[in-house]
Amino acid sequence: MAKRPMLEIAALEKRFGDNTILKQIDLKVAEGELVFVIGPSGSGKSTMLRCCNRLEQPTSGDIIVDGRNIMAGTSRDLAQMRLQIGMVFQGFHLYPHMNVLKNVTLAQRKALKRSKAEADVRAMDMLERVGLAHKADAYPSELSGGQQQRVAIARALALDPKIMLFDEPTSALDPELVGSVLKVMKDLKSKGMTMLVVSHEMGFARETADRVVFMDGGVIVEEGTPDEIFGAPKAERTRAFLSRVAG
Amino acid sequence: MERFLETFFNPVVMAKYAPDVIAGMGVTLAIAAAVIVAGIALGLALACLRAYRRKVLNFFIICYADIFRALPPLVLILILYFGFPSIGIRLSGAMVLFIVLSLTLAAFAEEIFWAGFSAVEKGQWEAGIATGLGFTRTLAFVALPQAVRLAMPPLVNRVLAITKMTALGSAIGVVEILSASTTAQSFSGSATPLTLSVIAYLVIFMPMVVLARWLENRTAWKKR
């Protein structure tokens, strides 16, 4: 790995009472790299992703984004650092009371303090990029799931994040709409975005990921290139999981 | 039939006392407007504070809301008007009415707005926080507008109920509609002034009821 790490997860632990969700997770994502996380439900992969911007509070460990530890600092520092970490949710979570343009400009204006003109230009650029510039005036309820998710991606991109986190971005979509979202993600990757993706889209992982991480029971069982993980998985648990999802 | 009309619609009595009742309408409207503004503002502020989930603060907010929703406003009105002068606090009838009704409306409004906040999806908060808005700005720009929209129908109903309670002012000498009409009734020996009060209340509250219905019909998000 020649490039510097954009995201570094070190000794991450997450417990709810006696229940340990994540055990000693160590993971590095290099600049421009797309790391794909797979695993059965309940394996802790979404929790790990949500710890990366502290939507979920880690019990211990460090999360270092571009050299800055987000576990340290005040809540104001944390809000600043979250601006650099784009997040895309399974459920889109667009703001229903705002049109698409407002959805994409809100944080630009209120958190980044961009002017309205500046934020609008940036928003239209990003909407153009996800192919939805013509929907700027529409409300979220007027869009399909795939369109809503692309707006959500534009909303995160408009803040110029250093890394993008995707939490099962296509799981809530009708099958015919999945492709449009994956296409946008692929385009992001080709433009050099650093991405950490939790998803079940194995075909996409095989095609686009630089590395695939298999998680089970709150630990990273195995990681490697897509060819290594999908072609010749070493761990028994990985093989069992892959045969189940393939079948 | 003639006796009915004579009792409730005596034109001479009507003409004589209409100005008094109209003046009472002014008082009712002024107090109602002040109560609505103060009660909703306080209720909204308390609901927002409650969203920060500070244990001690929330304990007091919940106590306040529960006590003021439980007590009949008339009891508080009588205490403030007849009891407080004994401890050296002398308030005008209108002021007592304003304070008690505002505090009562605020208690209900706090609960209604809080229910609105609770109904806002967790994902909405997460989306705001994840885009670096921080809690306060997520509250202000993401959660609040949605909570207010959800709160509208029950809030309007509550506002109607509270503003009608301005009639309690007649118990402490505030010359609002009911007070003006009962005085007129005693002087004239006719029930017609009470008819005037009915008309006066309808003139004020029918538009509000229609507005409430209209608001209820447009609470859904823009959809076409």
Automatic annotation (TrEMBL), chain A:
Question: Main localization of the protein?
Answer: membrane
Localization per Swiss-Prot or TrEMBL: Cell membrane
Which residue range or ranges hold the ABC transporter domain?
7-242
Single GO molecular function: ATP binding
Q: How does it sit in the membrane?
A: Peripheral membrane protein
| UniProt keyword annotations, A-Z | Amino-acid transport, ATP-binding, Cell membrane, Membrane, Nucleotide-binding, Transport
Among Pfam families, the record links this protein to: ABC_tran (PF00005)
| Database matches in PANTHER family | AMINO ACID IMPORT ATP-BINDING PROTEIN, GLUTAMATE_ASPARTATE IMPORT ATP-BINDING PROTEIN GLTL
Family membership noted in the UniProt record: Belongs to the ABC transporter superfamily.
Q: What is this protein called?
A: Polar amino acid transport system ATP-binding protein
The opening ranks of the lineage are: Bacteria, Pseudomonadati, Pseudomonadota, Alphaproteobacteria, Hyphomicrobiales
TrEMBL record, chain B:
InterPro entries recorded: AA_ABC_transptr_permease_3TM, ArtM/GltK/GlnP/TcyL/YhdX-like, MetI-like, MetI-like_sf
Q: Where is it chiefly localized?
A: membrane
Give one Pfam hit by family name: BPD_transp_1
- Indicate whether tRNA-binding appears among the record's keywords: no
Q: Where in the cell is it found?
A: Cell inner membrane; Cell membrane
Task: Please verify whether the record's keywords include Transmembrane.
Answer: yes
Q: Which domain of life is it from?
A: Bacteria
* Membrane disposition: Multi-pass membrane protein
Residue ranges constituting the ABC transmembrane type-1 domain according to the UniProt record: 25-211
**Keyword vocabulary terms for this entry:** Amino-acid transport, Cell membrane, Membrane, Transmembrane, Transmembrane helix, Transport
TM region positions: 21-49, 56-81, 87-108, 159-178, 198-215
Q: Where is the signal peptide?
A: none
Family affiliation: Belongs to the binding-protein-dependent transport system permease family. HisMQ subfamily.
Q: What is this protein called?
A: Polar amino acid transport system permease protein
Q: Which organism is it from?
A: Neorhizobium huautlense
